[in-house]
Structure formats: C-alpha cells, structure tokens
C-alpha cells in the first residue's frame, strides 16, 4: 500500500521559525537588568509558640527561638525581593513594574556585565503597574526601543528576558497567544504569551524579533506559582505613553470626561432604538466636564474625538490618552438621534466623584405593586434615610424580586431603587406603568430602567411582553 502524505503550504507572509535566538539575545542583553529591592520589615512582637514540656518538638522550637533572639528579638529585619527591568535611555532611565519596587527602601540595578548601581524612583503608575527608575552611570547605557504592540499578531514569535526565580539573566521564547487581554485594571491591554515567565521576570521586557519591546512582563496565570505557558505583558503602546508622562512630570496626567458608564447590551440597544450594541451608555453625569457640555444620563457615547467607541473599555482608554484641557467632539445617541457635543477634558487624577441627586420632594405612599416580576413601593422619607439616599430623591424602592423573573436574572434585588424608566424620571407606580405602556405601544421588546444601588447607577433593560 502506498501512503499519501499531506503537507500544508506555508502561509504567505507568516513568520518562519528562527533557527536560533542567539543573535537577538546578544543584541539586547546589555539593556536588560536584574532588580533587587530591600525593605525594612517590623519584627513580630507578640508571644512565641507555646510547646508543652516534654514535647518531641521542644528542642526544635528552642533552637528556632534562640536563633531569632541572636538576631535581636523585636528588632526590624530586612526583606529582599527580585524583579527585572530594561533600559530606555542612555542617561539611565529604566522601566519595571510598580509591584517590583513598591515600598522599597533601597533599589539595586544589576547589569549583564556584572556592574551594579543604585536607583531612584522617578514615578509610578499603580493603575498599569508600571514604574520608572533612574540610575547615574559614568558611561552611556545601551537602551532598547519600544515597538508598536498593535502590530504584534497572534502567532508571532516573541522573546522574554529577565531574572526568573532569582536565577540571573535568562531568556525564554514563545509566541503571542492572544491580544487585548484585560485582567483587572481600567487601562489593561495585555499581550498573552506562552514564553516562560516566572517570579522574578516581573518588569522585564517582551521583545519582537526586531529587538523592540512590545510588552512589559507583568503577571502569570498559574495554579502553583510557576509558568504553565499563560503569561501577560502590558502592551508597549500603553507603556510608552505612561513612561513619557512619568519622565516629564513624575506622575500620570490622564484625561477625564466625568461620567459613569456601562456597556451597551443587545437588549439595552433595542430599548433605546440603537441598531447595534456598541458605544458606552452613560448611567450618571456628576459635576464635571461632561455635565458642563450638556451630556445626560441615558446618552450613549458613540464617538470620542473622531474615533468610534466600541465599548466602555475603549472609551476609558481613549479619554485617558487625550490631552488635559483639550476640547474634543463627542457624538452621543439621545432619544433616537445623534447629537454632537464639545467637551473640555479635566484631569482624572484631580477628579472627585460627586454623586448626582434629584432636588425635588417625592410624594408619600405605602402601597406595593408587582410589575415585571418586581415588587415596588414609592419612596418615603424613611426609605430614603434607610437607603442612604439624598433627601429629594424620587423613585420606586424594590421590595422583592420574583426569583424566576427576567428582573432577577438581570441582577435587580430588594433594596435597589428605580429612578428612571424609558429615560424619563419616575416618582410613582403610575409613572412606571406609563413608560411600560409607551414602550409596548412603540413596538419595543424592552423598557430601559435606571437602577441605583448604594448610590451607584446602572441601566437595565427588562422585557415588556404581556
């Protein structure tokens, strides 16, 4: 029998497997550094372990406590931590993770040639877990350039270098596994890679095959603390902007729009007549730039400064990257039409959230009604006090929610307050019923509700089919 072998033709333009990473490793090794931090830790002053006399562990604990007393019982001790970083300028600027140097009293930088220098912190940004350090060197240092992380495609080869597990300079290689990963931060834009990243690699660079930094190794996903091939590097396009601000100002200066927002789901889009689930739905407009420009709760931000807005994450990043004090065009969807606003941005770091309130008195009522699976009652003065609401807040208090209803599935719970329906303020059960009827008459499948929980607003679209 003659077998037939099937061989897939290589994709046009795809990266070929490197025969060796040695030239790249040699090219960038002088720019990657090991970082050692030293921190003073207060000694434990409480009583030591109590071991019964005659216990087989008595000798062990006596020796242990004697060694501790030999170092000075109750005296502070020094704790060390290890990380990585890389040089970005000849005059000594070094990038690393904020968590590598956070709280450190002393920071020592070790270069590939064995030289060590003390470093000072220029600035930090906990939101992106980045820090900028500075060393004084007699000779110019060898920097590495930032690359364009947006050009890093899934499947591209990348190489990590750093100080894994304190073993010194080490190189690992892999591919870009995924792009645009979000972990927990507002400004997250991580590259996922299967290049081995372990403790001590934090703050080190992730290189493309041109020797450009496309990411800063920050975190791993692991059940045991070691690499399982799921590592995350903050993308260079985020890093470079943060570093430029830290270098110029010693702090970040992000744009501030002044709104609370949530993603637009399919049912939310249908309830407000938006063809596609896109943009960022404004749930509240405290005092600030957006309020001054006439933005309202219920608006959907479709475009910011000439760029389409896909979701809340994209809007936050675009606003954060915008220049403070700049007046930018913002397109919003309001009452079935697009409107253009001009917003002069503030500075996010200086902003203080100011909860919005309604300055009108609500009529008193004690009757309960069940609507769309939600038992509601008109807000009374006592309810406003117990829920911590401003004195003039109008709306309906949620007393109970049917566990089998769509409202329960959408997350509405007892203690919530419904302040708007169909993007109109409501003060009574009749107001809510009118808005539900209006939605049905207009052929809509859902009605849009504005829910407040402990002061935080959120829009929910509930089905209104009878």
Structure described in brief:
By secondary structure, this protein is of the alpha+beta class. 18% of the residues lie in helices and 34% in strands.
In words, what does this structure look like?
- Helices cover 18% and strands 34% of the residues.
- It has 466 residues and is an alpha+beta fold.
- The strands form five sheets. Strands 21, 22, 23, 24, 25, 26 and 27 form a seven-stranded antiparallel sheet that branches. A six-stranded antiparallel beta barrel has the order 1-2-3-6-5-4.
- A hairpin with a 4-residue loop joins β5 and β6.
- The protein is elongated and about 80 Å long.
- The termini are far apart.
- The N terminus is likely disordered.
Could you list some keywords that capture this structure?
466 residues, alpha+beta, seven-stranded antiparallel sheet, six-stranded antiparallel beta barrel, 27 strands, 18% helix
Q: How is the secondary structure organized here?
A:
Elements: H1 22-28, E1 32-41, H2 58-70, E2 77-87, E3 93-96, H3 98-101, E4 106-110, E5 116-125, E6 130-135, E7 157-162, E8 170-181, E9 190-193, E10 205-207, E11 213-220, E12 231-235, H4 236-249, E13 255-256, E14 260-263, H5 266-271, E15 280-284, H6 289-292, E16 300-304, E17 307-308, H7 312-321, E18 327-334, E19 337-344, E20 346-347, E21 368-371, E22 374-378, H8 381-387, E23 396-401, H9 406-409, E24 417-421, E25 424-425, H10 429-441, E26 446-453, E27 456-463
Antiparallel strand pairs: 1-2, 1-4, 2-3, 3-6, 4-5, 5-6, 7-8, 7-10, 8-9, 9-12, 10-11, 11-12, 13-20, 14-15, 15-16, 16-17, 16-18, 18-19, 21-22, 22-23, 23-24, 24-25, 24-26, 26-27
């Amino acid at each position: 029998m003659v077998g037939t072998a099937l061989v897939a033709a290589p994709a046009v333009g795809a990266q070929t497997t490197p025969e060796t990473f040695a030239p790249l490793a040699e090219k960038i090794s002088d720019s990657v550094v090991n970082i050692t931090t030293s921190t003073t830790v207060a000694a434990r002053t409480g009583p030591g372990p109590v071991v019964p006399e005659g216990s087989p562990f008595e000798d062990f604990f006596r020796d242990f406590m004697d060694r501790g007393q030999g170092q000075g019982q109750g005296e502070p001790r020094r704790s060390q931590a290890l990380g990585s970083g890389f040089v970005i300028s000849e005059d000594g600027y070094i990038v690393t993770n904020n968590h590598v140097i956070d709280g450190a009293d002393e920071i020592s930088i070790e270069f590939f040639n064995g030289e060590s220098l003390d470093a000072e912190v220029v600035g930090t940004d906990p939101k992106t877990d980045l820090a900028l350090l500075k060393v004084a060197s007699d000779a110019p240092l060898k920097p590495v350039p930032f690359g364009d992380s947006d050009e890093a495609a899934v499947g591209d080869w990348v190489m990590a270098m750093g100080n894994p597990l304190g073993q010194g300079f080490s190189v690992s290689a892999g591919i870009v596994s995924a792009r645009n990963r979000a972990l927990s931060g507002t400004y997250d834009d991580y590259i996922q890679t299967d290049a081995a990243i372990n403790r001590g690699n934090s703050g080190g660079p992730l290189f493309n095959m041109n020797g450009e930094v496309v990411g800063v190794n920050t975190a791993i996903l692991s059940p045991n603390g070691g690499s399982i091939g799921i590592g995350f590097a903050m993308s260079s396009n985020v890093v470079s902007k943060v570093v430029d601000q830290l270098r110029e100002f010693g702090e970040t200066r992000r744009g501030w729009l002044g709104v609370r927002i949530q993603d637009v789901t399919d049912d939310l889009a249908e309830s407000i007549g938006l063809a596609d689930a896109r943009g960022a739905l404004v749930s509240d407009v405290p005092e600030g730039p957006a309020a001054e420009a006439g933005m309202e709760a219920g608006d959907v931000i479709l475009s910011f400064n000439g760029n389409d807005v896909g979701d809340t994450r994209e809007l936050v990043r675009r606003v954060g990257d915008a220049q403070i004090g700049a007046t930018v065009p913002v397109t919003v969807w309001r009452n079935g039409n697009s409107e253009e606003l001009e917003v002069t941005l503030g500075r996010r770091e200086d902003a203080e959230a100011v909860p919005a309130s309604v300055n009108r008195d609500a009529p008193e009522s004690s009757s309960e009604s069940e609507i769309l699976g939600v038992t509601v009652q008109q807000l009374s003065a006592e309810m406003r006090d117990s829920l911590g609401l401003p004195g003039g807040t109008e709306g309906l208090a949620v007393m109970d929610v049917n566990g089998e209803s769509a409202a329960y599935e959408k997350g509405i719970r007892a203690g919530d307050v419904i302040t708007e329906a169909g993007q109109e303020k409501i003060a009574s059960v009749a107001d809510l019923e009118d808005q539900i009827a209006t939605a049905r008459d207009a052929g809509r499948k859902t009605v849009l509700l504005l829910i407040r929980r402990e002061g935080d607003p959120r829009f929910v679209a509930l089905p209104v089919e009878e």
